[in-house]
Task: structure prediction
Amino acid sequence: MQIISPKLSSTQHSSDLREWCPSSFESFLLEMDHIINSCEGKDPFPLFRGQINSEWFLDSKFLRLSIQRLFKLANHHELPAKMRHNISFHKVMTYLFLLKFGTIGKPSQELNEAEAIHAIDPWFEWLKNLQQYPENDRFINGTFLLDWTSSKDIGLYFATYEGRGRSRVVSSGNGALWIYDAVSTGKTLQTKKLDEIMAMMENTEFLNGDKTFPLIFHPTTQTIQSRSKNQDPIYIAQMDFRYDLADIWANYEYHHKKKVFIKLILPEDMKGKAAQYLESINVVDESVYPE
Result:
């Protein structure tokens, strides 16, 4: 992504230009397109992640809930940095992850049989199902995948609403739409199957934090799932449990003198207009969650 400043002088921003806060919803849409148009390459690949709370970090659900359960914390970022940033912490979380995925649980026989017929990745399909249907998870809920989308409107939906169906409401507090330029960090789209990646996680290089850059999972061949079809999801794996994705990307920016992501704030008082905009283009609960 080009190193850019906000398009509008009314848009406030952090000193490092990683966080922008527009003055109106119309300004929000203009700045969003400005960021998208600044993405790299002949075939740009911007990805979006909406969060209803702008203070949330880009940590996987597996890590958040593991820390909360192991250390009895309401907020996983209450864990002292001295402890979390230690390589021993990364190793412990990796072993716990591999205990859940591979020892305690594995893809179903049905998924394994589908691999031979349709050339799908059974491990990816299993984790994708847990992402979309967390109620099916049994042991420390969550995976190391974070939900992103190739649709800016779907990203905005998740920055605006909490709950779904009859419980869906416009969320309180400031939200955030993260925009990540996937081309800017090189070849991170995975062609290897997920079980091969997980096998690599047992190697010394990974456990020592040498090969832990976030990886993008979006296999060409996948099973048809109505939620996935409508939400245009692309999954990014948190490979280093010491740091969230933003920390890793910020470090990459520093060493490569370029821009990788921008966090666009959606203030609470704009969420009503965001909801009206989404309804006008039919991005509503019935289309995002079609079942």
